[in-house]
Amino acid sequence: MKLRRAYLPADASTTVDVATHAPLVRKLASMMVSRLPASVELDDLIQVGMIGLLEAAQQFDTSQGVLFETFASQRIRGAMLDELRRIDWLPRQARRNAKQIEQALTALEQEFGRAPHESEVAERLEMSIDEYQSMLYDCKGHQLVYYEDFRHESDEGSSTQFIEHVAGPEAETPFAMLGDQRFREHLVAAIKELPERDQLVMNLYYEEELNLKEIGAVLGVTESRVCQLHSQAVSRLRGKLRSWI
């Protein structure tokens, strides 16, 4: 994943000394990149953030009674988030479909007290089994957290921007979360609750590091079918781990 390269105009003039506030961009980019996939590069986030800083300097109005650093932080983070959304490989419609699947799986499991069958999920979504499986294939299921998840609900019920959740100083890194004994126990329990075939797919993909074609050979199904099963398994886990992600 590569972010678009961006450069500041050489003759830009503002009422704010941009160079003085450049460290703010690095600080925000460093906090954000530690909670994103390794394919997102710090330098690229900084370049995008510098564009946000320049725009903030050009648009800052001292009469509003807001500190420039506060105003600039919002613009810098916004610029970074816009770029992350732009490069996100999964189309917005596919993300919406993935969330629909996740919600249907979670609701049906609560109703039945077991993992629902594909036909039951398709019926809940008011579509044919072929349409449901096609939706699973299109979603791919590779992302546990989506950049479109803008809002995060706190324990007190208030909501904050998703960017604040992933980049804020109080947020845990994925590695720290994985090191949390409670999370590991929750994850293990969630995987054990998956249907047997879903467990096998996850084990072969993540533990044995087989590709989809190789997993298909083990299961005796096509590569596209493995992709569907993987998407469904990830959607089930997202629902079970909702309090953690």
TrEMBL record:
One Pfam family per UniProt: Sigma70_r4
Domain RNA polymerase sigma-70: 44-57, 211-237
GO biological process: DNA-templated transcription initiation
Region (Sigma-70 factor domain-2): 17-89
Motif range (Interaction with polymerase core subunit RpoC): 44-47
Keywords per UniProt: Cytoplasm, DNA-binding, Sigma factor, Transcription, Transcription regulation
Domain of life the protein comes from: Bacteria
Primary localisation category: cytoplasm
Cellular compartment(s): Cytoplasm
GO molecular function: DNA binding; DNA-directed RNA polymerase activity; sigma factor activity
Listed GO CC annotations: cytoplasm
PROSITE patterns: SIGMA70_1 (PS00715), SIGMA70_2 (PS00716)
Regions recorded as binding DNA: 212-231
Region annotation (Sigma-70 factor domain-4) ranges: 190-238
Function description: Sigma factors are initiation factors that promote the attachment of RNA polymerase to specific initiation sites and are then released. This sigma factor controls the expression of flagella-related genes.
Family indicated by similarity: Belongs to the sigma-70 factor family. FliA subfamily.
Protein name: RNA polymerase sigma factor FliA
Gene from which this protein is expressed: fliA
